[in-house]
Amino acid sequence: MTSDREERLRISEIFGPTVQGEGRHIGEPTVFVRTGGCDYRCRWCDTLFAVLPEHRGEWAPMDPEEVLAEVDRLAGEPILVSLSGGNPALQPLGGLIAAGHERGHSFTLETQGSVAAAWFAALDSLTLSPKGPSSGHITRLAELEACLDAAGEGPETTFKVVVFDEADYGYARELAANYPGHPFYLQVGNPEPVGEPDPADLMARYRWLVERVTNDRWYAATVLPQLHVLAWGNQRGV
Amino acid sequence: MTSDREERLRISEIFGPTVQGEGRHIGEPTVFVRTGGCDYRCRWCDTLFAVLPEHRGEWAPMDPEEVLAEVDRLAGEPILVSLSGGNPALQPLGGLIAAGHERGHSFTLETQGSVAAAWFAALDSLTLSPKGPSSGHITRLAELEACLDAAGEGPETTFKVVVFDEADYGYARELAANYPGHPFYLQVGNPEPVGEPDPADLMARYRWLVERVTNDRWYAATVLPQLHVLAWGNQRGV
């Protein structure tokens, strides 16, 4: 039998230190650990290289110690590790989190909330980012609630919804009404996830979303752009 | 004798709801209450209309109830009120905060930390934003510490330093080393506070600052741009 500290993880990329560009930790220095594989196929996915099976050959099998050795090499000292994907909840990350905590790192994870894992409770911060209508997916609330239950009182759990249009906005409103106890982030969608993004268009979308939120007096929402897209475009590794 | 609830405040402008563009509350819906008058004259000041005595005629004397009536008219329900300036610490804001709390509002205030007020302790959030060398001012640490003492355990107190160059960055590093117990925000300076800002230049400055911070392994700092400048330029009232 292998313990969870020896289990192999499918890693698409490890990079940083850079800053987190989204949500609760926007602007905070972090190293990203991106896993490969996803149960979703969002229409506007900006990380297809970590989603589609044809990229599987690019995903390195690594054990937790190997991942942490790379995080340590990049960061040099304890840092916030952002676990992302793909859907990182598909990987057995409990051993990585436990060993990383021993080295002083903290862990935040983002997932769509379609798959719950017991080790969510060991995270420092969890972002549930269910996908609105524009993604092409329908949210299964039972799974989302299983994620909340798995996390329990362990991490600080926040919601984040990407908003492209009115339908996504309505979806976010309804979701927030269902789960009022958690900080709620709205993020402007990027319609050009490959090639060059258009900062002027992204800022126009941001202004629209701010106006939508303030017109509805939805003052518990936090409205943010993807800061890394504004700063670095769609470049990988930043 | 007038009580602090009747004391007149010098108000430059009240606007919103919009989102906070800076620091700890970035992206959060808020109404701004900007006071008139300042003990500083920062070289790169972006709100001279709330600083220079020649604008004094534009600053309305208002009592706390009048200010709150306008906040309520704009926001319609309880919201985060951002007290800004000028230097809002020069005004007797204790009565406004007490009466606003009764109506369900919360209050965040930003000041350079040159003048302490006993009512700091009643704030929900306090941003001390001492000015680096590029401002032309020298920080008096005794006054800054008086601000920390006045706030005590009342508000969540964070530091924010605007960074234009290497000298500002060094100043921020030293300040953070002196006050390690508080969240520390670095904000990219805007060299064009009047007229049209240059988003590409601002983002180049942001990338430089991120690189500076990560090269120094300063992982406790949060690095942010002025989001409202990216979204709305130097326009007032947003």
Automatic annotation (TrEMBL), chains A, B:
Catalyses which reaction(s): 6-carboxy-5,6,7,8-tetrahydropterin + H(+) = 7-carboxy-7-carbaguanine + NH4(+)
Binding site for Mg(2+): T47
InterPro entries linked: 7-CO-7-deazaguanine_synth-like, Aldolase_TIM, Deazaguanine_synth, rSAM, rSAM_sf
Binding positions for [4Fe-4S] cluster per the UniProt entry: C38, C42, C45
Gene Ontology annotations of biological process type: tRNA queuosine(34) biosynthetic process
UniProt GO MF annotations: 4 iron, 4 sulfur cluster binding; carbon-nitrogen lyase activity; magnesium ion binding; S-adenosyl-L-methionine binding
Annotated ranges, domain Radical SAM core: 25-234
Biological role: Catalyzes the complex heterocyclic radical-mediated conversion of 6-carboxy-5,6,7,8-tetrahydropterin (CPH4) to 7-carboxy-7-deazaguanine (CDG), a step common to the biosynthetic pathways of all 7-deazapurine-containing compounds.
The name this protein goes by in its record: 7-carboxy-7-deazaguanine synthase
Organism (species): Thiohalorhabdus denitrificans
Gene behind this protein: queE
